[in-house]
Each structure stands twice: as structure tokens, then as C-alpha cells.
Amino acid sequence: MGNSLSPPADPRFSSATRAFTQKDLEELNSLFVSLAAQSKSNNEYISLSVFQAYFGLKSSLGERLFDLVTQQRKDNKLTFHDLVIAKSVYEKGTRDDIEEFIYQLLNVTGDGVVGRCDIESVLAAILRSIFSLEASNPGLNSHREIINVFLNAAKFSKVVEGAAEKSMSFEDFRSWCALLPSVRKFLGSLLIPPDAGRLGSQVPQLVHGDNINPDLILLREEYAWHIGGALPHHELVEWKLLYHSAINGMSFNTFLGSTSNGEGPTILIIKDKDGYIYGGYASQPWERHGDFYGDLKSFLFQLYPKASIFKPTGANNNVQWCAANFSSESIPNGIGFGGRVNHFGLFLSASFDVGQTFTCTTFGSPCLSKTNRIFPEVIECWGIVQNGAQEEKLDAAKGTVLERFKEDRHMLNMVGLANSSE
């Protein structure tokens, strides 16, 4: 393998190599040699510019990642030892190791304080990377509102002596990541080349007919990326608009008719008259029931004025609700998620002109809107096209249960989620 694997003086390197197989080390060495050649360093180091270009992070986030990987030496030289040590912590470490690395990564200024400006810079870099925007591109300005939506989900509770504003503590960071799994996935896989299917970068294709003005659609690409962070890879290929109140009218029966043809999951999105946007992911079809049904794959989410995802807590199984043409007051007609009858996490009455949202133990979610009583202005529903799911099931059937489990654990370890409940 050449000089890059010669006996190290740094005991951290010896310890780090034990996290990899010999084949892994050979592949890392090949990558290093290739990037070092591009850096014109006589096979000694990788430069910042080559590092940023290869990993697709031409921003302050890329600079901060390079700084951490090079152990903050400030010499603009990433050695093979640096690469192995960083990957052993960032990809092979415990959940705490990985999240501590990511938390340091958020401090793009390197001053030891994770402030609001740091988070704003990181979010801008993420959106620039995913949506292929240049820093000078005016398109980034259109993401300013989205950046603020993600920022609004963050807490800054740590008091910093001499600072005018509070900063994000490590616990604040963990809470923020739980609300924004797409951000967590992306930040947890930055040392994976973008063309290798970097986690947290997938944006589903949004398909709708020509009979609707795109400006009327609530589901922006950035919102789809946010929701997709809580979904498996095969559900991030194509989402198709099944129902929109501007085209189909505020009709419960039309909604049920429009969504009943698909067997896959759906995404319900509501914009109310207060301007709040929120909804729920329904893992099961919308079918007439006299009680709660569904499974714990469903979740609630907020999109505006802040973005958050609320997954089932396991407190109860009151996940999905769909009641039609019942005459009993104990079975309200309409669709909803979580909570209990007449005190739902989210509910639309069968008239589609009024609903409710309450604090909900099913999903650990707050009231999703400004008030508990909501008045919908726009309602839309997207169906998740399941083509890829069948292929994944066939592929999975070829392996043993143990092999599939190992693959899943490997993928989760890459983003530090194998030992978490997120």
C-alpha cells in the first residue's frame, strides 16, 4: 500500500485501523492516493480544494469538516492517518462519538460556540449541496425562508459568558436532530462521496398534472426533502399528487375516491387560514373504520412557520382515523391522526371546512397550528409510488435474515442511528 500505511507514530492511528478490515484500509488508501495525486502533493496529503471538490462541500461546512478531519492543525494538509482516524470516529464510533463530531462540525466559525449564525450557515450549505446551488446563485435567496423554517425548530439554551445571545447546547442539538431527521442523516454521512448515494440527499420527484398551477402546490421540494428524512430509501423515488382542493374541491368523498386507488402510503398536507402548514404521513390507505387503525410507521409533521417531524412514542396505538357516514357522535366522521376521539393530534371533519389539532401523546407532538381549532384553506394529498419497494423486497428475499439485519445495521451505523430510537 505504499508509504501511507507505514508504521504510525500516532497511537490513535493504530487504534483507528482496528475499526476497518484490510480491504477497507486498502480502499481508503486507494482513495487517498487518488486525491493526493490531484492535490499534487507527491502522495503526502490531500489539499482543502481537492477535498471540497470530491465530497461536494464547497462552503464553510466543507472547510469546517476539513478542519476537524485534519485535527485542526491549520496546515491545509489532510494525511492518510487523518482520514483513517476521522472515519473511525465519524462512521465507526458510538452514537455519542458520532454526534459529538457532528456537534463540533456545526461550529463552523471554530470559536467553540454553536450559535444561530453557525446553524444558518450549515443549513445554507446543506441546501446548496442538495439542490446544486452556487453561493452567488439568486436561487439560494429563495431558500432563505426554508432556512428560517428549520432554524425555528432549534433551541438555543446555553448561556455563554460575555455573549449577547444564547448558543445551542449538545442536548439542544440532539433535540433538533430528532425533529429534523433529514438534517441529521445528511450531516452524518459527509465523508461518503455524493455519487455513492449519500444519505440525507434524496429528494423525491414530485409528479402532478398540468391542470394545476404549480404556485398553488404546498409541497415544495425542500419540504419533500424534510419529510423524506423520516422515510426509507425506496419511498423517496416518486410522489404523485392524488388530491388538491383547488382542483377537486373541499370534498371528503372526492378525497376518499382520489386516494383509494393506491395501496401505498400517502402524505396529507394542510394550509390553514392562519397560514400554518402541517400534516401527516399515513402508512396505511384511507379506508372506512369505526376506530383507530394503522401502524407505528405513520407520523405528524410541521412545515411552516417551523419544520418538525413527530414520530410515534409508543404511548398508544391511536395512529390513523378514517370514519365516513357514521351516525354516532362517538365516531366523528373525517380523517385524522393520533390522540383520542374529539381530541386528535390532527383531524379534518368530513365537511373539510373545519378541524382540530391538540397536543398528542401518540406522536409527542404539540398543537400543530396557532390554535386548536383549524380552518383549512388548502388540502392536498400525495401518494408514494411503490415501484422500488417491490424490487427491494425481491432483493431482500435472496439473502438470509441475518445478512439483511447486518446490512441494515451497517447503514444505520453510518448515520449513528443503530443504537438510537430515532
TrEMBL record:
Name of the protein in its database record: TLDc domain-containing protein
Matching Pfam families: TLD (PF07534)
Top-level taxon: Eukaryota
Domain TLDc, residue spans: 217-385
Alphabetical list of SMART domains matching this protein: TLDc
InterPro entries: EF-hand-dom_pair (IPR011992), TLDc_dom (IPR006571)
